[in-house]
Write a structure and sequence with these properties.
By secondary structure, the protein is of the alpha/beta class. The chain has 22 helices and 22 strands. The strands form 5 sheets. It has a 9-stranded mixed β-sheet, sandwiched between helices. The chain has a 7-stranded mixed β-sheet with strand order 3-4-2-1-5-6-7, with helices on both faces. α14 runs parallel beside α16. The N and C termini lie far apart (84 Å). The relative contact order is 0.06.
């Protein structure tokens, strides 16, 4: 096929065929149907026609051809059948064509009766017209679709080989995905891969289904059909096969792909799928939250988020944008991330009334200005220093941000009558072994000690979030892209993981059920061994661990422990109405005592008296025992 033909095809079919052209074509097909029926009738009765009969059929023919053309045009316009995209036509569209022609036929009958041209056998003519007209309209569309697909296939062959892929399962979403990729320039869907043996060799959209039970079945199907990849219609189905199909597919060096969620489409290339990420395998099913209660709680409120440009803070902002809040105050001291968040919110949430504020929670005067100017009714306090080894080297800054900053925010909430403050804490506050964890526990203690009638204080505590800034997954991904090695601190180290959106949804849910002074603990699911996580990421990238990319064990970092605790077991928590949220049992402190030790820690940190400050932290939080740290000497 030469370039001129190709250019002509692209020009004609790059956009949908003109609706005006289809409208005229359908009317023409209707006219042809009426003409054919008239010709057949005249031919059958021509030998026995009298002069009066000839005059009758001449009058009938004129009224019949004009009437069917006008009635068809009217009904096609009323039913808008010409607006149906031909290449996506379905059985329901055939019914729509048929209904339009049926109504046109009934109108023809009325015209013939009014004109006094009704004949005892006229209903046969009308029935024949109905059948022939629908047949021609449907046949014409089928021919157009087949021509289009044939031309597309010829062009694709000239453009080079596409990746031969299987789509997992035969669910509605899988079938819809196959239809979306039908004309893809990148992927050639050669079948569905289903665990349902009853569907073996069945076809959908002329695409066969291949059932599998064992790894040998998958290997045989892949070999026979030269498969290069598997596409999962949803992240949930990817997780369902995380321990069976996914590991074996990576052994076969198959490309693993997944259809993105609706939110991802805006930033996705036009091929419509993306690579499977380890986050897809670690995530859990969508959690159920009380959307109505959350909207009722925050709608019409002025809401402030500290640390708004961070991983958790920015996601809280995105979710709050859907709840009809009056004004959103973004508070963060990181200029570039704040700028990026501002651009994102302006682009995605054009009706959101928000104010980006560059400020530091350590600066009391700046906080006072914000509270005095905008009077936030709800505050989500996500600002914190969170990196364990870095805070072991900079303990004074950890205290100033995590403890003093939290105190400053809480005190301003009381001073200006804020309805609620929600503090974001961490599982590292449970039996802390590092400076960062202890500072978060100290912040919890101060916030919990406040007893105020106007302001409700609530703390939420959870573990690592997938893909957060500086977390292990982006770090591993970067190391894999560079060819390794991937550094794991210890072969036995484990962590709990939760997706950022899931964590933020639970934060919002906890805020709606709080009565004040609780520490809400989230169900973090099953712990994940970081060594296994690194190996899985290497495999998903198409490499073999320890062969293509080495794994190096670097040793535990200062303050790091092998296993994190979240206190989500039944003995140390009380249940709530949400099955993934519980209330932790923790020691209570008097507010006067909390004020004293926080002021003392502030003095020591500002004077950079590190030994005295750490000793005071260990005195207050008696369960704080340093691990793999220079501060272990103060535990003796």
């Amino acid at each position: 096929m030469n370039d001129k033909t190709r250019q002509l095809f692209n020009k004609v079919f790059s956009r949908y065929v003109s609706t005006g052209f289809i409208f005229v074509l359908d009317i023409l097909l209707s006219f042809i149907s009426a003409l054919v029926l008239l010709f057949i009738v005249r031919y059958l009765v021509s030998n026995s026609l009298s002069s009066s009969s000839i005059e009758y059929w001449n009058s009938f023919g004129k009224v019949w051809l004009i009437g069917t053309t006008v009635s068809a045009a009217l009904m096609f316009w009323l039913f808008k059948s010409y607006r149906i995209i031909i290449r996506h036509s379905s059985l329901s569209d055939v019914f729509r064509f048929g209904l339009a022609v049926l109504c046109a036929t009934l109108l023809d009958a009325v015209i013939l009766i009014v004109a006094g041209l009704w004949h005892p056998n006229t209903w046969l003519i009308l029935f024949g017209y109905l059948v022939l007209c629908v047949f021609l309209i449907v046949t014409c569309r089928v021919i157009m679709i087949r021509v289009y697909e044939d031309m597309q296939r010829r062009f694709r062959k000239q453009e080079g080989d596409r990746m031969r892929v299987l789509i997992y399962n035969t669910s509605d979403k899988a079938v819809a995905l196959e239809a979306r990729l039908h004309n893809s320039k990148h992927y050639n869907v050669i079948g569905f891969l289903t665990p349902d043996t009853s569907e073996n060799k069945l076809t959908t959209h002329q695409v066969p289904a291949f059932s599998f039970v064992t790894n040998e079945d998958v290997s045989r199907i892949v070999s026979e059909h030269s498969v290069k990849g598997i596409i999962f219609p949803t992240e949930k189905e990817t997780r369902n096969e995380a321990k069976r199909l996914v590991p074996f597919a990576t052994e076969l060096r198959l490309k693993l792909l997944v259809a993105p969620t609706i939110d991802e489409y805006a930033n996705l290339a036009t091929q419509g799928v993306r690579n499977v990420k380890v986050e897809d395998l670690l995530g859990r099913d969508e959690i159920a939250i009380s959307m109505d209660k959350i909207k009722e709680r925050f709608a019409g409120k002025v809401v402030m988020v500290t640390g708004a440009a961070g991983s958790i803070g920015s996601e809280i902002c995105r979710q709050l944008a859907h709840f009809g809040i009056k004004k959103l105050l973004l508070y963060d001291n990181a200029e570039t991330p704040m700028h990026n968040l501002r651009l994102e919110l302006e682009d995605k949430y054009k009706d959101l009334n928000f104010v980006p504020i560059v400020g530091d929670v350590r600066q009391l005067a700046r906080l006072d200005y914000v509270f005095r100017t905008w009077r936030p009714q709800v505050v989500f306090h996500a600002a914190a220093y969170k990196h364990v080894p870095l805070m072991e080297d900079n303990p004074c800054e950890a205290v100033l941000v995590n403890v003093i900053g939290s105190r400053n925010v809480a005190d301003k909430c009381i001073e200006y009558g804020t309805e609620m403050m929600v503090m974001i804490s961490t599982d590292k506050a449970v039996n802390p072994t590092n400076i960062m964890g202890c500072t978060k526990r100290l912040a919890e203690i101060y916030v919990q000690s406040i007893d105020n009638e106007k302001t409700t204080f609530v703390t939420t505590r959870f573990g690592n979030v997938l893909g957060s800034n500086g977390s292990v997954i982006p770090r591993f991904r970067e190391q894999i892209e560079q060819g390794g090695p991937v550094t794991v601190t210890h072969p036995e180290i484990t962590r709990y993981f939760m997706t950022i959106p899931e964590a933020c949804r639970l934060v919002l849910e906890a805020a709606t059920m709080s009565k004040g002074k609780e520490i809400f603990v989230f169900d973090m699911g099953e712990p994940v061994k970081i060594d296994n996580l690194a190996r899985r990421m290497i495999e998903l990238a198409g490499f073999v661990p320890d062969e293509d990319i080495k794994i190096v064990y670097s040793g535990l970092r200062p303050g790091e422990k092998l296993y994190e605790e979240v206190l989500s077991d039944l003995e140390n928590t009380d249940p709530t109405q949400h099955d993934r949220i519980r209330i932790a049992h923790v020691r209570q402190y008097a507010h006067a005592d909390a004020c004293v030790f926080v002021e003392e820690l502030e003095t020591l940190s500002r004077e950079v008296r590190i030994p005295d400050m750490v000793k005071e932290m260990k005195r207050i939080v008696t369960e704080f025992k340093s691990n793999n740290s220079k501060f272990e000497i103060y535990d003796k």
